[in-house]
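hi! just following up on the protien thing from before. the input was this:
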Amino acid sequence: MGDKLRIYFGNTNFLLGLLFCAVGLVLMTNFLPTVDFESAWFITQPIAQASGTIVSASSTDYTESEDENRIWEIDYTFNLAGHLYKNHSYSSSQNVRPGTVVQIEYMSAQPNHSRILGTSNAPYMLWTLLPVLGCAISGLAWVYKSGSYCRQVIAIAEDAFVAPAVRTQIKTKALVHDEEQEYKAHYVYSFNNIEYHHILDVSETKLKQLHQEENIALQRSFPPNAMLVANLPRSLQNRLTSPSHPA
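and the predicted 3d structure came back as:
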């Protein structure tokens, strides 16, 4: 278990993915109570309107941006069919004096769900959650991708055989990443008299660091699972290339 953990936590991309996930989770936990999820219901449900009155308004610690006015929490009431409804809305508008008559929109089937027309039911609109979700999702994607690499490395490390691999061709990829040309390098290696092909995507810089012949580490029980020794974690490279490692 210790070796497996070292492979995972020795992988920079895996750690960065965990960091993004953690930051996204913390931000989401703190941000969710301030997001107006109820606005989605106003889009999908029948809505009616009535006149209401502002009862009170208090300034919150929230702002629409660093340079804009603070968001107000506005308490209001409205009367419908002899029943008095109370609720609150959020807005950065300065016209929030008690006694002001305002237009209220409410769900026809559930009048207790309402808001002042042009305001929201929480300090921030639903779309403001997107950057936080993006952070968490990016972190999860990073963890998944780097985790797949780590699992592949572990499978090779537990059942490793090192063989020579010869580069047979280099193909230019159509896409250019970070203004650096990328290539597909094709290598051929053999195990138990069976020939296997290994293709890897490399940048121009990485390609210059590779040789025509490289050592490749493969999983004995599944030889197609292979990686160039040069692409393995440094600790595993040292173990596989040491004289004491069985060929």
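Strands lie at 47-63, 70-80, 83-91, 101-107, 110-116, 160-177, 180-191, 194-203, 213-219, 222-228.
The first strand starts at residue 47 and ends at 63.
cheers
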